[in-house]
Write a structure and sequence with these properties.
Helices cover 42% and strands 19% of the residues. By secondary structure, the protein is of the alpha+beta class. The chain has 4 domains: 300 residues, ATPase, nucleotide binding domain (Nucleotidyltransferase, domain 5), CATH 3.30.420; 109 residues, Sandwich (Substrate Binding Domain Of DNAk, Chain A, domain 1), CATH 2.60.34; 100 residues; 219 residues, no CATH class. Strands 1, 2, 3, 4, 11 and 12 form a 6-stranded mixed sheet that branches. Strands 18-13-14-15-19-22 form a 6-stranded mixed sheet. A 4-stranded antiparallel sheet has the order 21-20-24-25, with no helix packed on it. Strand 14 and strand 15 form a beta hairpin. The protein starts with a strand and ends with a helix.
Length: 889
C-alpha cells in the first residue's frame, strides 16, 4: 500500500506534508520551495505547466494560465459574485449552469475540479519523489465554511488526480491539530484563518489529545485576493484619469496589475510606502505608456477598510455560537498568508484583546495538521481524538417553501438525524425531497444540495402516510439522505452529488483524461531529458579530444579520435532531426568510442610510467604534490611568448605605490602578482628567487639599479621608508667601467623584458632539482651577501659614513628597542600584510648583522674586492642576457 499525505489545497498556494518518524514534515517541490502556487498553464506547444513555471508565463499567456480556481469549485455560475468573475482568463456557463474554464490553446473547456486535480497530482508526485514510493491516499483540507457541494467537488478533484481521499478536513481544525499536538494543558483557542480566497474562524477546546470544535464561521468569498483587487482598481482608476485608458479591459495589462498589486501588498506589511513601476503597460498612437506611482500603508488601509469590516462578523458569530466571550479565549492562532497584513493583526487584537500567537508558520500549519490527521487514519499517530462540526445547517423544504432544519450548524460530526413527514394532498403517491443547506428561513434563500423522489406510496388521505427522512453526515462532512415509507417499507436514498456539479460519468471521463495527460507529460519529460543528456555527451566528447591532444599529441589514437568526431556530428544531426532512434544509436556508439579512447590513454600513460622506472614515478609524484600545494591558478593568465612564464613584476612593497607604478608602466607584459608572498622554490631558479617580498628578484632585476628601491634600514631606529637610489651619489659613480655590462644595460630597459623567455633554462632546471637543504644554504648565503652589499655600498659609499659612525649606530640599535621613536608602537596598531612582511625583513637583516659582528668580517674585505665581486655578478648575468637577446631576435 502506498503512503498517505496531507494536502492544503489553497486558493493561491498549496502545501503537502507527511508524517516521518512520528513528526510532520513539509515536502519541498522541485524548485526547492515549500509552497507551490495553485496555478496551471498550457504553453504554446500544449505542454502542461504547474506551479512556479505556470506562474512565470502568466503575463505573456494570460488566457491559458488559470489561478484562483478554488473560488469556482462546487459553485454554479449564477452564484458567483461579479468581482470573482474578473479574471484574465475566460469563464463561462454551461448548459447545466455550472462554471467552465475555457482554454484556447487546447480548444477545450475545463471544470474547476480538473484544474484543482492537476495541482493535487503535482503535489502527490513531489511527495512520491521525496518518499521514494507511491502516494495513493490523501487528507485534503477545505475552508470550514465550505458547503456540501464544495466539499464533494474537492473530493472529486482528488479522485480525478488518482488519489483516495481518506478525509476532507476543515482548515481551522487542521491548524489546531498542528498547534496543539504536543500540548497537554487544556485551552480554548480561536483559529483566525485568512487565506488567499477564503476566511474562516473556529473556536476549539484543545487538550490531552482531544480536539473538539465548538463553533465555526466564515466567508468563502473573502480573502487576500480581494485586497489585491482593491489595489488593482486603485491603479486602474488612476491610469484611467491620467491617460484615458482602462487597463482592466486588456488581459495582459490586468495580469500585470494583479502581480504588481500582490507584490505591493506584501511589501506594505514591512514598510510604510512602496513604489509601483510598470513600464510599457500599454501603448497608444502617441507611443508606449508607463505606470509609475507610490502607495502608502495608510492609503492601502483606507482602500481595504470595508474588507476589514467584513472580518468582524464571522469572529463575533463564532464566539456567540460557542457561547463564550472574547476574554475566555486563551490563545489566538493566525493561519494564512493574509494574516501578515498589519491592519488584520490590529483587528484581531481589538476583537480578542490578546496578542496573536505567531509561533506557527501560517503558510504551512494547515498542511502539517492534515499530515497529522493522515497519521491518525493510518495508525501512525495515536491518542488523538478529533471532533469536528458541520459548518452549516442542513434540512429540507416543506409546505410553503419553508426550510425545516434537521441538523443545525456546529453539530459534531459524524452525526445522524431523522424526522417524520407526510403527504400534503389526498391520494398522493409520490413525494419529492428537496435537500437544502444554509441558515435562512426560506428555502429559496438557501443552497440547494439536491432533489430525489420517493415513489410507490399507497393512496391515502392527506397527512396519513408516514415518511421517515434521515440525514447522515460522515466524518468528511458529506451528506447522505434517505426516505422510508413506514407503510410499505419502500426506501429511496441519495448521496448528494450536486455538490460537485459533476455526474459520475463526467468524473470517470476526467480521470481517464488526467491519466492520459500524465502519460503525455511523462513522455515529454523523458524526451527533454534524453536530449539534454545527448547534448552533454557531445560536449564531453569534444572536451576529451582536446585533453588527449594536449597530453599525448595530435598523432595519438588518430583513428579513434576521427571516429569520435564523426559520431559527434551524427548525434548532433539526429538531435536536429529529432530522430529518437538515431539519437539512441549515436549515443551508445559515442559512449563506447569515448570508453575505448580512455582505455588507450590509460595504457599509454602506464607504459610511459613503467619506462621511467621507480625514480621517475617518485619524481612525478613529488612534482604533482608541489604543483597542487604551490601552484597558482592565475599563472597561465600572464604567460606570453615574449617573457619568462614565471617572471613577476618588480613591485616594491616597502615604499608604496610609486615604485609599483613605475615598474608596471615600463613593462607592458607585467601584471600585479595575485599571490605576492609565495616563495616557490620548486618552480623557480636562482634568478627567480622570491626571497624579497612581492615576487621581486633582488639579484637579477634591473630595477635594483634604475627603479626606486627600498633599502633595508641599518638599525631599528632608522626610518622604514627606504631611500631613492636615483638621488644617491653612489648610483652615478658606482660603475665607472661600463664595458660589457654597460653595453648590455643600454640595450635593455628592464630585466623582465620580452627576451627573458629564451634565457638559459638548463641551469635553472638543474638548479630546481638540487637538494632542498643545499638550496636553503645557498639562498641564506645570498641573503647575507646582499645584506653586506647593501650596508657596505649604501652606507660607506653613498652616505660617506665612517666605520665609527656605523658602529655607533649599531651600538645604539642594540641598546634601544627596535621600533620607531614614537609614543605609539605601530606594531600594536592594525597593519597590512605588506607592513608585517617589511618589519620581519628588517628584523632579520639586523639579526644577521649582529651575528656577523663578532667575526668582524668588514675588515676582511676591502672596498675594491667587494666592488669587484659585486660587479662581476652583473657582468656575467648581463653577458648571458645579451646572448639570449641575440638568440631571441
Amino acid at each position: 500500500m502506498g503512503r498517505v499525505v496531507g494536502i492544503d489545497l489553497g486558493t493561491t498556494n498549496s502545501v503537502v506534508a507527511v508524517m516521518e518518524g512520528g513528526k510532520p514534515v513539509v515536502i519541498a517541490n522541485a524548485e526547492g520551495l515549500r509552497t507551490t502556487p495553485s496555478v496551471v498553464g498550457f504553453s504554446k506547444e500544449g505542454e502542461q505547466l504547474v506551479g512556479q513555471m505556470a506562474r512565470r508565463q502568466a503575463v505573456l499567456n494570460p488566457q491559458n494560465t488559470f489561478a484562483g480556481v478554488k473560488r469556482f469549485i462546487g459553485q454554479k455560475y449564477a452564484e458567483l459574485r461579479p468581482e470573482t468573475k474578473r479574471v484574465p482568463y475566460t469563464i463561462r456557463k454551461d448548459e447545466y449552469g455550472n462554471v467552465k474554464i475555457k482554454c484556447p490553446r487546447l480548444q477545450k473547456e475545463f471544470a474547476p475540479e480538473e484544474i484543482s486535480a492537476i495541482v493535487l497530482r503535482k503535489l502527490a508526485e513531489e511527495a512520491s519523489r521525496y518518499l521514494g514510493q507511491d502516494v495513493t491516499g490523501a487528507v485534503i483540507t477545505v475552508p470550514a465554511y465550505f458547503n456540501d457541494s464544495q466539499r464533494q467537488a474537492t473530493r472529486d478533484a482528488g479522485r480525478i488526480a488518482g488519489l483516495e481521499v481518506l478525509r476532507i478536513l476543515n482548515e481551522p481544525t487542521a491548524a489546531s491539530l498542528a498547534y496543539g499536538l504536543d500540548r497537554e494543558d487544556s485551552q480554548t483557542i480561536l483559529v483566525f484563518d485568512l487565506g488567499g480566497g477564503t476566511f474562516d474562524v473556529s473556536v476549539l477546546d484543545v487538550g490531552d489529545g482531544v480536539f473538539e470544535v465548538r463553533a465555526t464561521s466564515g466567508d468563502t468569498q473573502l480573502g487576500g485576493n480581494d485586497f489585491d483587487k482593491k489595489i488593482v482598481d486603485w491603479l486602474a482608476e488612476q491610469f484611467l484619469e491620467q491617460e484615458g485608458i482602462d487597463l482592466r479591459k486588456d488581459r495582459q495589462s490586468l495580469q500585470r496589475l494583479m502581480e504588481a498589486a500582490e507584490k505591493a501588498k506584501i511589501e506594505l506589511s514591512g514598510v510604510s510606502v512602496t513604489e509601483i513601476n510598470l513600464p510599457f503597460i500599454t501603448a497608444t498612437e502617441d507611443g508606449p505608456k508607463h505606470l509609475e506611482t507610490r502607495l502608502t500603508r495608510s492609503q492601502f488601509e483606507d482602500l481595504c477598510g470595508d474588507l476589514v469590516s467584513r472580518l468582524r462578523g464571522p469572529v463575533k458569530q463564532a464566539l456567540n455560537d460557542a457561547g463564550i466571550s472574547p476574554y475566555e479565549i486563551d490563545e489566538v492562532v493566525l493561519v494564512g498568508g493574509s494574516t501578515r497584513i498589519p491592519m488584520v493583526k490590529q483587528l484581531v487584537r481589538a476583537l480578542i484583546d490578546r496578542e496573536p500567537n505567531e509561533n506557527v508558520n501560517p503558510d504551512e500549519v494547515v498542511a502539517v495538521g492534515a499530515a497529522i490527521q493522515a497519521g491518525v487514519l493510518t495508525s501512525e499517530v495515536k491518542d488523538i481524538l478529533l471532533l469536528d462540526v458541520t459548518p452549516l445547517s442542513v434540512g429540507l423544504e416543506t409546505i410553503g417553501g419553508v426550510m425545516k432544519k434537521l441538523i443545525p450548524r456546529n453539530t459534531t460530526i459524524p452525526t445522524r438525524k431523522s424526522d417524520i413527514f407526510s403527504t400534503a394532498e389526498n391520494n398522493q403517491t409520490l413525494v419529492e425531497v428537496h435537500v437544502l443547506q444554509g441558515e435562512r428561513e426560506m428555502a429559496n434563500d438557501n443552497k440547494s444540495l439536491g432533489r430525489f423522489k420517493l415513489m410507490g406510496i399507497p393512496p391515502a388521505p392527506r397527512g396519513v402516510p408516514q415518511i421517515v427522512v434521515s440525514f447522515d453526515i460522515d466524518a468528511n462532512g458529506i451528506l447522505q439522505v434517505t426516505a422510508v415509507d413506514r407503510t410499505t417499507g419502500r426506501e429511496q436514498g441519495i448521496t448528494i452529488q450536486g455538490a460537485s456539479t459533476l455526474l459520475e460519468s463526467e468524473v470517470q471521463r476526467m480521470i481517464s483524461e488526467a491519466e492520459k495527460f500524465a502519460n503525455e507529460d511523462r513522455e515529454r519529460r523523458d524526451r527533454v531529458e534524453k536530449k539534454t543528456k545527448a547534448e552533454a555527451l557531445t560536449f564531453e566528447a569534444e572536451r576529451k579530444l582536446r585533453e588527449v591532444a594536449l597530453d599525448f599529441g595530435m598523432q595519438f589514437a588518430s583513428s579513434r579520435r576521427r571516429e569520435i568526431e564523426s559520431l559527434v556530428r551524427e548525434l548532433r544531426q539526429a538531435l536536429a532531426d529529432q530522430d529518437e532512434r538515431a539519437i539512441d544509436v549515436a549515443q551508445t556508439e559515442l559512449r563506447d568510442a569515448i570508453s575505448e579512447l580512455n582505455r588507450e590513454a590509460y595504457l599509454d600513460a602506464r607504459d610511459e610510467e613503467a619506462a621511467d622506472g621507480f625514480f621517475g614515478s617518485v619524481k612525478r609524484t613529488i612534482s604533482g604534490i608541489g604543483d597542487a600545494l604551490l601552484g597558482d591558478d592565475d599563472e597561465d593568465w600572464y604567460r606570453d611568448p615574449y617573457r619568462d612564464p614565471y617572471a613577476r613584476d618588480d613591485r616594491d612593497y616597502y615604499s608604496g605605490r610609486d615604485t609599483y607604478r613605475d615598474s608596471y608602466s615600463r613593462d607592458s607584459f607585467s601584471r600585479p602578482d595575485s599571490r605576492p608572498t609565495r616563495d616557490d622554490y620548486y618552480d623557480r631558479g636562482y634568478r627567480d628567487d622570491s626571497y624579497s617580498r612581492g615576487g621581486r628578484n633582488d639579484y637579477s632585476s634591473d630595477s635594483y639599479r634604475d627603479d626606486r628601491y627600498s633599502r633595508p634600514s641599518r638599525n631599528g631606529q632608522d626610518d622604514y621608508s627606504g631611500r631613492d637610489y636615483e638621488q644617491d651619489d653612489y648610483q652615478t659613480d658606482r660603475y665607472s667601467d661600463r664595458d660589457s655590462y654597460g653595453q648590455a644595460r643600454s640595450n635593455r630597459s628592464d630585466y623582465n623584458s620580452s627576451n627573458d623567455r629564451y634565457s638559459d633554462r638548463s641551469s635553472r632546471n638543474s638548479y630546481d632539482r638540487t637538494d632542498r637543504n643545499s638550496y636553503e644554504d645557498d639562498r641564506s648565503s645570498r641573503r647575507d651577501r646582499y645584506a653586506e652589499d647593501s650596508y657596505s655600498e649604501g652606507s660607506y659609499q653613498a652616505d660617506r659614513r665612517s666605520r665609527s659612525d656605523y658602529e655607533q649606530d649599531y651600538d645604539q640599535s642594540r641598546s634601544q628597542p627596535r621600533r620607531p621613536s614614537s609614543d605609539v608602537n605601530p606594531r600594536s596598531q592594525p597593519r597590512s600584510e605588506d607592513e608585517r612582511r617589511r618589519d620581519a625583513y628588517v628584523d632579520r637583516s639586523a639579526d644577521r648583522y649582529r651575528a656577523n659582528d663578532d667575526q668582524d668580517d668588514w675588515d676582511d674585505r676591502s672596498e675594491r674586492s667587494r666592488r669587484s665581486a659585486y660587479d662581476s655578478r652583473y657582468e656575467n648575468r648581463a653577458s648571458d642576457d645579451w646572448d639570449d637577446d641575440d638568440d631571441a631576435w
